[in-house]
Design goal:
Layout lengths: L2 E5 L3 H12 L4 E5 L2 H10 L4 E5 L7 H11 L5 E5 L4 H9 L4 E4 L4 H30 L11 H14 L5 E4 L6 H11 L7 E5 L5 H9 E2 L11 E2 L1 H4 L4 E5 L6 H13 L1 E2 L8 E2 L3 E6 L3 H7 L4 H7 L2 E4 L10 H12 L9 E2 L1 H9 L5 H15 L4 E2 L6 H8 L3 H4 L6 H19 L4 H8 L3 H10 L5
Parallel strand pairs: 1-2, 1-3, 3-4, 4-5, 6-13, 6-14, 7-10, 10-13, 15-16
Antiparallel strand pairs: 8-9, 11-12
The protein binds adenosine-5'-triphosphate and magnesium ion (MG).
């Protein structure tokens, strides 16, 4: 439903306009003065403002200017009883959509409003389209050719065409949000909005009002009606990030929206129908939370119709070179597409690092290196110390159980290093041997000793 804000100091006009345009199926919000109107413009999601020109205090012209500053995309129609043509011309120069003279003919007003709405819709849709194109969130934008990633792409392909709920899990920085975007922008809803909300970042009251919206006066500070994200996502997709953090009271409400596809705004009684595809993500184990009774089981099954697990970077070290190349290009200055090399010891450090922050951490490391490097080569000096340390310092506690005899411990370590070198060189023995600084025949001897088969 499209919403119109009507501003006039004369109550009669407000009543007449509200009745006239309300009957056309618009949702009407009114304000008696421009100051009130400004706070509504800030708060509410409006599709049109109709304002009187002459009002005590802030004038309609000033309101027009303010509105264009805070929400330039909302069309504004000016009304004037005292209108001289000059005033109207000035308003048009300040990007008013149109003006009407009081007293107005009902039909003419309705037509002007209808046209403004159509125009606004076009502008909005065009913007969504442009955003979709410029973001290019086809999974073509996701980098990685490893097996675990191929599995992810396959699932994205399978689910993007349907309306089924998808729960995306995986550790922090593994690209869960990218997966959600890929699903949305590859599916039939791509021209409609993808609306995200982080369920872990807000208090319960705020989260409820963000998700479901609120009516004017629903709580202190609710100066105007506000549409919730579910309403904004109508026809499109909502992405519930950190869904595992959702407080229990809201879990119940959310479940109802998912089941019935309808909701009431906070403080409201009117039932609003929505058509929304739900994607959610979590880096905590929601299944465990269900077992502990922190997360509702019925909601979990609703969200988790399809499950996509984003692999950690450690599970797909094969993708490190591709990702590095991708991020180098991303952070390379404008036109300079010079080739940049990484020293072999830098590659080694990148492979050896456990990457607790996953792709995001790798991205940050490359961004930093792109600032520091000189002469077309990235060296160990350009990496953060933590990365260099994993390579040079040997963490005995992590590698070897305590209380075992030294020769046995040395063998433990040797076996692990050989296995790691082989994995990192994709089982090419000559490379693994070279990285370990030994001959090929020696690595084969060790492999036999430790029963390592390829
Ligand atoms: N496969 C990928 N290819 C290219 N860039 C990626 C890939 N995966 C993640 N990234 C980049 O890594 C960063 C983190 O990704 P994203 O925000 O999607 O992770 P997340 O799983 O949602 O993390 P969190 O749980 O912390 O919210 C982003 O800048 C994203 O562009
Ligand atoms: Mg995220």
């Amino acid at each position: 439903m499209e919403t119109i804000l009507i501003v006039d100091d004369e109550k009669n006009y407000l009543v007449v306009l509200e009745a006239l345009l309300g009957a056309e199926g618009y949702e009407i919000v009114t304000a008696r003065d421009a100051k009130m109107a400004v706070s509504i413009i800030r708060e509410a999601d409006l599709d049109l403002v109709i304002t009187d020109m002459k009002m005590p205090g802030m004038s309609g012209m000033e309101l027009l200017e303010t509105c264009k500053k805070i929400k330039p995309e909302i069309p504004v129609i000016m009304m004037t009883a005292f209108g001289t043509i000059e005033m109207a011309v000035e308003a048009m120069k300040k990007h008013a959509y149109d003006y009407i003279q009081k007293p107005f003919e009902n039909e003419k007003l309705k037509l002007t409003v209808k046209k403004a709405m159509e125009n606004h819709r076009l502008v909005k849709e065009n913007r969504l389209l442009v955003e979709a194109l410029s973001d290019r969130f086809r999974y073509g934008n996701m980098v990685g050719k490893s097996k675990p990633m191929a599995k992810v792409y396959d699932l994205i392909d399978k689910v993007s065409g349907s309306k089924a709920s998808v729960l995306i899990t995986g550790p922090s920085g593994t690209g869960k949000e990218l997966i959600a975007k890929a699903i949305h922008y590859q599916g039939p809803r791509k021209k409609r909005p993808l609306i995200s909300i982080n369920c872990g970042a807000l208090t319960e009251t705020l989260l409820a009002s963000e998700l479901f919206g609120h009516e004017k006066g629903a709580f202190t500070g609710a100066v105007a009606m506000k549409k919730g994200r579910f309403e904004l996502a109508d026809g499109g997709t909502i992405f519930l990030d950190e869904v595992g953090e959702m407080p229990p009271a809201l879990q119940v409400k959310l479940l109802r929206v998912l089941q019935e596809m309808e909701l009431e705004r906070v403080g409201g009684t009117r039932t609003i129908k929505v058509d929304v595809r739900v994607l959610s993500a979590s880096n905590r184990n929601i299944k465990e939370d269900v077992a502990k009774g922190i997360f509702r089981e019925d909601l979990y099954y609703r969200l988790n119709v399809i499950h996509i697990d984003a692999p950690s970077l450690q599970e797909r070290t094969d993708d490190i070179p591709l990702l590095v190349k991708h991020f180098i290009e991303k952070f390379q200055d404008g036109d300079s597409k010079k080739k940049i090399e990484l020293r072999p010891e830098v590659w080694k450090a990148l492979y050896a690092h456990p990457w607790p922050g996953n792709v995001r951490e790798l991205e940050n490391v490359i961004e930093r290196a792109m600032v520091l490097y000189t002469g077309g080569v990235i060296t160990l000096d350009d990496l953060p110390k933590t990365l260099v340390d994993t390579e040079t310092q040997f963490d005995v506690e992590r590698f070897v159980p305590s209380h075992i005899p030294l020769p046995k411990a040395m063998e433990e370590i040797e076996e692990r290093l050989v296995r790691r070198a082989l994995a990192q060189s994709k089982n090419v023995q000559t490379h693994a041997a070279k990285n370990l600084g030994i001959t090929k025949s020696l690595i084969q001897h060790k492999m036999k000793k430790y029963n390592i088969t390829l």
